[in-house]
Amino acid sequence: MDLQTFQANRQRFPSEQLEKYSGQYVAWSPDGTTILDSDKSEFALDHRLRSQGHDMTEVLITMVPSVDTILGGGIEE
Question: I need a labelling partner for 2 at 20 to 30 A (CA). Which of 8, 47, 55, 58 fits?
Answer without folding.
Answer: 47
